[in-house]
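Q: I'm writing up a methods section and want to include an example of the input and output format. Could you take the sequence below and give the corresponding predicted structure tokens, formatted cleanly so I can copy it straight into the document?
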Amino acid sequence: MTIEERFERIEHLTAGMAEERRKDREEHRQLWRDTQRQLNDLTFKIADTNDAITRLADETRAADRLLREADQRLGERIDSLVSAIGKWVSKE
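A: Here is the clean output for your methods example:
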């Protein structure tokens, strides 16, 4: 093998390695872009989930308040009925 052939072979190998590096860089860039896109999507999904949790918490608090109010009214009605029955029984 002559010196010229060796240089050509080295140039060929070097060109091949440079092409491999270029492909690797492009692949890594694409992976980076995909990862960033996925992170952005995940961030929006987390924000949506937080909004849903906040909404459900507000609805639960409102429902709990309504139940407490209904329970209080029922207690007042029971007290009134017991009192009325007591008065009725004492009259007889």
